[in-house]
Amino acid sequence: MTLAVKEYVAELDGKRVSIGGYVVPLDFESTSIKEFLLVPFVGACIHVPPPPANQIVYVKSETGIDVKGLFDPVWVTGTMKTMVAFTGLA
42: burial class by Cβ within 10 Å (0-12, 13-18, 19+)? Predict the structure, then answer.
């Protein structure tokens, strides 16, 4: 399967950004999540149609973050890399 993602903001590559959204966990231990998808609306997972690919941010944290609930919005701050990424799940 190939996925063509044509729209991303190249000007953000290498910039420090803060983006709000909701967590779809990919790699976690208890409440500490090291890899997740940041999506624009709650519940964006396999149970509903996903947001467009250019509205999904793959987030990776070496130390992990604590998330109290998947229905709670979060803010993520870090260095943006604009590229297409594939994980084992998404």
Answer: middle
